[in-house]
Amino acid sequence: MSYSSLKLPIFLILSSLLHAALGENIICENLPTNMCAFSISASGKRCLLETANVAGEYTCRTSAVDVEGIVNHVESDECVAACGVDRKTVGISSDSLMEAGFAAKICSPACLDYCPNILDLYFNLAAGEGTKIKFPY
Fold first, then answer.
1. Residue 11 lies in a domain
2. Quick one: signal sequence residues (predicted)?
């Protein structure tokens, strides 16, 4: 295994250890908007980016959606890029699963192997909307 293939897993492990070591509890409302989407609070709830006003400013809030097995997590920039998602997304829907190239990115080894939070989000979103998408995990 090459060093470059180890960078993402090492980053994810170190990031998790850093959050634990610092005793940080993620509160969605305290996150900067550029870190909100694809984050999970200390209580295990997804963080949600919303438009705050007509001026186009954004706010981060805690959703009602529980995530099993993941808490205090801010998705890495590497996972966001590997899975082809955008942190500026407001109101995530399964429509993106139908876009050309999106399925290839979300099913890529870099996303499938290292980004369970993003996969969980889109899998559950697709299932909840009745979309017939199967992820190979």
1. no
2. 1-23
Q: Which two tokens stand for residue 67?
A: 């995530």
Per the structure, the complete domain to which residue 98 belongs is given by: 25-128
Specify whether the CB–CB gap between 106 and 135 falls below 8 A: yes
Residue 91 belongs to a domain: yes
Antiparallel, parallel or unpaired: β 39-40 and 58-66: unpaired
Residue with tokens 């805690």: 62
19 has a pLDDT exceeding 80: no
Q: What is the CA radius of gyration of the chain?
A: 15
Residue 44 lies in a domain: yes
40 bridge partner residues: 46, 73
Q: Is residue 123 part of a domain?
A: yes
The answer to whether 66 and 99 have CB atoms below 8 angstroms apart is no
Q: What CA–CA distances, in Å, run from 86 to 68, 80, 82?
A: 23, 7, 11
Per the structure, how many domains does the chain have? Answer: 1
